[in-house]
Write the structure tokens for this entry.
Amino acid sequence: MPYCYPCNEYFYTWYDIRKHWAQSPLHEYCKFCEKHVDDIVSHNTEHHAVCEPCEKVFEDESGLHKHRQQSERHRDRYCPDCRRLFSSPNNLKAHRNPSIHKPKSVRCPFGCGGTFVSNSALTLHLENGACRSGINRRIIDRIVRQYDTNNTITDPSRMIAGGSTDEDIIYATKRSWNGFGYECYLCHNVHRTLASLNQHLASPRHKDKIYICRGPECGIRFTTLSGLVQHIESDKCGVARFKNVQNAMNSLLGQMGRLTIPPTAPKLILPSLIMPYCTRCNLDFYSWAGYDRHVAKSTRHHICDDCNIDFPTWIGLKEHWVQSPRHHYCQYCNEHVEDIHAHYSDYHHYCSSCRKAFANEFGLHEHYRQSERHRDQYCVACKMLCRSTNDLNAHLDSSIHRPKDVICPFKCGSSFVSRSALVLHLENGACKSGMNRASVDRYVREHDRHNIITDPSRMIAGPSGIAENVTLIATERSWNGSAWECCLCYSTYRTHKALNQHLASPRHKDKIYICRGHECNKRFPSLSGLVQHIESNKCGVARFKSVQNAMDSMLGQMGRITL
């Protein structure tokens, strides 16, 4: 019979012992490779596909991909095209909007070479003054007022015309200083520099909301054309279905490239909007090339090239690399790696379930010891994390933490941590005395005359008046063409010997042993199962004096059996 030396357990089939190796925290066994490894967590990370939120391991990436597509937990956060899992459905939605999944098919009509994924992105490009044609938000607002004569997308009540339809430019002076910063008198926001306050005043923040959505039950107003176009593209209120709105937007955006920029337009634009300006360093630049050189050399600018985000300090950039799911950066090695989780597993102390890495083993040990997620699964003495609380209890009850003070009464030299382990030793026929399960059952039937641990209704006597154990043996007729099949439960086995081991096990035997605990009455086919149940004290039957006396007497006198 297959035997596990570290756990001191026998198994009826190799399938059972492999299942034990895969599930037990004492063994580092890979069920896919069918071999023992040094570290199962690192092995699964390197050679297989792991779903860390579900704590499931798959043989390859196709299994993980199929799991995330079908799982209710992941399907609304998983992009099957990129095979990426996001933290929320909103992040997945935002991921599908950029140019990764949408082509840049909208070109700038002024021939600056810019391409965009949507009309709203094009409009925002023009409003920000990023186009070399010189067009900006003020010019776009003036053109829309001239072309939208039917007020399809504009609100005439918000467009108050003076000498012209242009908005007045508000400039801040040094009198805006309040002792701590430059304060906006409209919203009372404080800015560090006068230039940044003027940029704030020139933004659409305090402008009239002249654009309106004409959708039924909508009526949302916007300060910029790009905001309205983005709202229409989202189709939240269904206004994009109206023909007049489609014609107005197509006509306006289609003819925008034919506009002639008025020669007076540069006079209407703030210098801070034309010239690149660094708000952090309070510096103006005559070209974007000069601004880029400044950002590249300045110690106050730390840019993430992948995300195009500027951080004021190196620590901020490093924290971004560590926390962002787009980067694989090790904060301990200070370098980018191909796979951060595999790197943590190989070179650092890593908790895969919490996805946290620690600088040393002591940090991981304290994490397991203090974490509410692990404390009831972690053995502090052995520094070992078990899969469940039951596995931890089984580990604490093993010979690692309990002395082997139960000696075999047949003087075979074996000792065990519990009585159930002793009975299992005898039932499996591992004792050199020749004791086996049939002998144990016969002994219990003869001595348990008050039926304290046995069920008389399950003990059918033979011709001699004593219940007999019948061992089933499979013949050549058990072969079904592809495997050896059990005639009782229809389980299949690879070899004839494995099927006979299955038939000789207590799997199909009568459950003659019973627990007399209140509201329990659980039955077992073997004495070792009942003793293990009593030792676990799940139903409190061990408190009954009659049960204690019966077990002590029966196990104490077992060494006097004459085979």
